[in-house]
Amino acid sequence: MTGASRFRSVEDMQIQPSDLGLIARVAALGKRYGSGAGQVTALDDVSLGLRRGEFTAIMGPSGSGKSTLMHIMAGLDTPSSGQVWLGDTEITSLPDSALTVLRRRRVGFIFQSFNLVPTLDVRGNVLLPFELDGRKPSLDERMWIEELYEVLGLKSRLGHRPHELSGGQQQRVAIARALATRPDLVFADEPTGNLDSRTGREVLGLLAGASAGYGQSIAMVTHDPIAASHADRILYLADGRIVRDAGRSTPEEIASFMLSMETAA
Amino acid sequence: MRARLKDQVPTFLVALLAGTFGVLLLHVTGMLAVAIAADSVTGDSDTVALMLPIVAWVFIVIAIYVSAVVTTNTVATVVAGRTRLIALLRLIGSSARAERGRIAREGLAVGFAGAAAGIVLGTAAAFGLQRVAVATGVMPDVAYQYANVSVLLPAIAVVLTTWLASWVGSRRVLRVRPIEAIGQSVESDREELVRRRGRNIAAVVLIVLGTGLLAVGIVVGLVRPEGVLIGLLGGILSFSGIVLAAHIVMPPVLRLVGRLFGRTPAARIAAENAVRNPERSSRMTIGLVIGVTLVTTFSVTMESYRAMIHAAIEAQPEVFAGVEGMLNVTIAIFAVLIGFSALIAAIGLVNTLSLSVLQRTRELGLLRALGFEARQLRGMIVAEAAALTIAATMTGLVLGFVYGWAGAQALLGGAQGQPVFILPGIPWAMIGILIVAAGLLTAIASIAPARRAMRVSPVVALAAD
Description:
The complex is a heterodimer. By secondary structure, chain A is of the alpha/beta class. Chain A has helices spanning 66-73, 96-106, 122-132, 139-152, 167-180, 197-214, 225-228, 251-264, and strands at 22-33, 40-51, 55-59, 81-86, 89-90, 107-110, 185-189, 218-222, 233-238, 241-247. Helix content of chain A is 35%, strand content 24%. In chain A, the strands form two sheets. Chain A has a six-stranded mixed sheet, sandwiched between helices.
């Protein structure tokens, strides 16, 4: 986004992520905690690009660094080394206030639990990103939000508070909120972790539908093979490194690869 | 264990203050009694010696009552924050009664520590006060025995009320289900709003009965000064009713105040936060309402009285010479004594707000992740503190004005030989002090929580526990 029409210095004269059809990119990313002998490496020289419009799953066992990777890509955490782009914006050097605005406008979040502001009703939660931006949704955006309510089956629940909704309904509200601003990228962290398997499948279907139907780019962190089987692409992480980059797979294929990683470790 | 001790600091502080206040007040009245008995002119009067401790105990009871309300609320907030831990212990096999008993025992221990510290501090303060009074010649140097058994009474009262308040405040422990130890998607500290019909009926009966008696007191006061006693009873009854019905009275006031802050996201969420747990916010504010009401009632009554005295001074300057100065000193002393309860209530509000923000870390992280700037979070916390303080101060002022006028009318309505309507005196100085104090309280109450809120990382909202 930035600099596209502006004059670029020689240093900046490089290929932008968007030129490659990427919505997000990380290069030589490292994240280390502590120092000296007690140092822990969460991410070790990770480079990857997420393609625009794709539903990407980031898989890996506990402690593989997948959550850290997502936090850094979403601008919630800072890397020890390397660079991160969201769209064409290099975000590692951005100050906190710029990152906040970026999250507000260009990123959507769906968490495992505690997704919604408990004091706001469904409509208030979905419109919160707009309010934070100090603006009202445009006519086009209002129609889009109405469509989301319709598709997600929230029409009759708009005045409800989160505690009056089931887990699956809460997660639908979170999806509506994440998609409402049509962000560059939606991050989902174990979105089905707290749901029963049927509700979980519905939620995954909705995410896959948002990607296929509306071209929404989604990055989902999970360790559930069934959840990952809904994705277009699956990145496997182990010990802070990308160990495999696979296309759409069946749950069986995913599970057997995960098992082989566990036994190899 | 360290976190648990930290939870109890507010309760300790309240017990310490109430204990210190009680002990100090009894020491001072004891000294005055000795000084009066030693004086040749007043020494023969038994009335003063009898009245002093009674007046002192009225203020001590008010302070202890307010501190009990504050402690009940603090304990309820602490329990809400410990829900996960309690649920875990229940899961492992501890009984609800045992868990509640543990919290009540903590309250007993903390109350004991606070009262013991209060005896030391109160006695030291009384000693210091006496030295100053003697040095400046305000009081003769009389032999006063500090080893006075009666000062143990307020300390014991503080221990017992802290214990009782912890027991009452820990009621929610019984509703914690073991399953709450296992992850869930709804925040766990939502206090269920239970309809207490019995309590509501009692409140209505008290308010109706009290208001009726207040009216009777005013009418009787037009012809006989005893009307004020009927009015006093009516005031106590109706105000108790309002305190009982705080969960009905306070939320609308909080909503109204919340609307004053505008429609920005931070202000809106702050307004909602202030009423998210109607029970909790009512308890949080009612202590302050009691304090402000008492101060206002007293000031309005005294101001009306002063207006009448002024008229009398103009009519017969020689008879009433010197009355003005005495009146001012009396008003100041009583205002400080009542103001102490308001101080305890204010400390309770600060602590409860701190605790409740601490328990909302994940929600703050969520707001940060969604695009709230740290600055906006700070604004939100300040607005929340302001909503609570302003709502309590406003309610207290209105109630105090009504009661103050009723008191003045009942007391003075027939004092001039014929029934007159008493214009309520407006104590501007007191209103000014209250507004400044409310502003200060908002600032103090929000400093620590706001700083903590600004440090919250959005990552905590993503973390599955």
